[in-house]
Amino acid sequence: MEVALDFILYLGFFINVLILYLLFKNRENGFHKKVLFVIFLWILLAVVCFYGFFHRNGILFFSTFIFEDSLTVFIGPLLLLYVKSVFLPSHNLLKDNMKNFVFPLLYIFLFSIPIWFFFYKEEYVFSYIEVFQDYISLMILYSLFYCLLALKLLYKVEHVIKHYYSNNDIVNVGWIKRILLGIIVVICIDVLFTIIELIMGELAFDVLYFTVTGVIFVITHLGYYGITQSRVLLPVFLLKNNTPEQNEDSVIISPDKKEKEQSQYDESEMKGLVVLLNDVMNHQKPYLDPDVSLSSLADVLNIKEKMLSSLLNKYIDKSFYTYINEYRVNEVKEKLSDPANHHLKMMTIAYDCGFNSKTSFNRIFKNTVGISPSQFKINIIER
Q1: Nearest CA to 360 among 349, 352, 370, 350?
Q2: How big is the chain by its Cα radius of gyration, in Å?
Q3: Distance CA 209, CA 212 (A)
């Protein structure tokens, strides 16, 4: 078991150092990369502490103990800050989230430092630690709460992307969700074992073996994707107005609020914009650009993103994602119906019409038309 644990610790150390080096050398010096750097530096120090503990190396253990012990309450708020930094403007982001770190900072002074003295002096320098020692491990529930908040935010982001981008695979949030779910599982099992030990006494095996293995696995996944993750800024007004329970073509709000939001814009002006939007879509065909977004289309119309979002959701009753892709599907149908294009491959036509993924193209086409693209083409040829 010790050999296996040594291998895991060495692997974790190597991965952390490599990721920190790549983050340091990365030219994109965004706030989200700085948050990621702090996370991996903290985890690296925790790995060093684990190594010092298992090998009874006092220098390594005592020099890094506070970081290892406080990681349990810091990792949740740090991951939430990272998720926010990827999708939200970084201006004042740290300041606005400082309240999330008040408890972790208090934890360092009230528990981590006193426990450090306990291990160093081999006696309780702070007597209250003896009273709380069996329950300190449950402090990790604080991080569990923030991991769940981050997961909730990601589900909201997935929904908002459909209101902002025409291709929902413009950003892959799946890997971040897997990270959070992995950490949530590790925390839940750690808490479960802690409760069992409180009830039944100390277990025959050390739970740290599982915790360390879980952390190493999770950070490997986080590092692999996190280094190349670019920021995908989303409008704050959409994140505030949308919830994960909404379907893709509507915004669930009360009738009074809906009437209030509609009254923000002159109805005749909005009707004129509907005509202008249809004209732009039919003649300029911005949907042929796979990277077209709510922002870029708003620029073409010379209006604000929020106004275009309201136009689509309240007056056209469609999300940006659905609205753009319906035009793309119609363009594909038109090209497939032209005998001059029968020699072209299906994906050649799809890419020309603004789709950037075979999977999403087939799914969107079938959901819109009711049959697959290939079946539609066969029906056209057989006529």
Answers
A1: 350
A2: 27
A3: 5
Helix 294-301 and helix 267-283: axis angle, to 10°? 100
Q: Are 212 and 8 in contact (CB under 8 A)?
A: yes
Residues 6 or more apart in contact with residue 13 via CB below 8 angstroms? 44, 47, 48, 51
Looking up tokens 């004209």, which residue turns up? 279
What is the separation of C-alpha 177 from the centre of its chain, rounded to a whole number of angstroms? Answer: 6
The whole-number pLDDT of residue 342 equals: 85
Is residue 291 classed as helix, strand or coil in its secondary structure? coil
User: Which structure tokens are listed for 80?
Assistant: 């939430």
Calpha distance 241→160 (Å, rounded) = 9
Q: pLDDT tens, 130-182?
A: 888 878 888 989 999 999 999 998 888 877 776 777 776 656 677 788 888 88
Higher-confidence residue of 289 and 200: namely: 289
- Helices 31-54, 58-87: crossing angle, 10 deg rounding: 160
Residue 235 · residue 149 · CB < 8 Å: no
In a 3-state reduction of DSSP, which class is residue 337?
helix
At which residue do the structure tokens 């060495």 appear?
10
Assessment of whether the complete model's pTM goes beyond 0.85: no
Number of H helices, E strands in the chain: 19, 0
Q: Report how far Cα 124 is from the mean position of its chain's Cα atoms.
A: 42
Q: What does the alpha-carbon distance between residue 158 and residue 242 come to, in Å, rounded to a whole number?
A: 10
Measured at the CA of 170, the angle between CA 92 and CA 300, to 5 degrees, comes to 80
Burial code (b: 16+ CB inside 10 Å, e: under 16) for 98-120 equals: eebbeebeebbebbbbbbbebee
Q: Which of 38, 46, 98 lies closest to 70, judged by CA? A: 46
Amino acid identity at 308: L
Strand partners for 293: 165
Number of alpha carbons in the 13 Å side-chain half-sphere of residue 303: 20
Gap between the terminal Cα atoms of the chain: 70
Which residue, 309, 310, 296, 320, is CA-closest to 265? 310
SS3 of the chain: helix, strand, coil, percent, to 5: 75, 0, 25
Quickly count: other Cβ atoms within 10 Å of residue 62's Cβ: 14
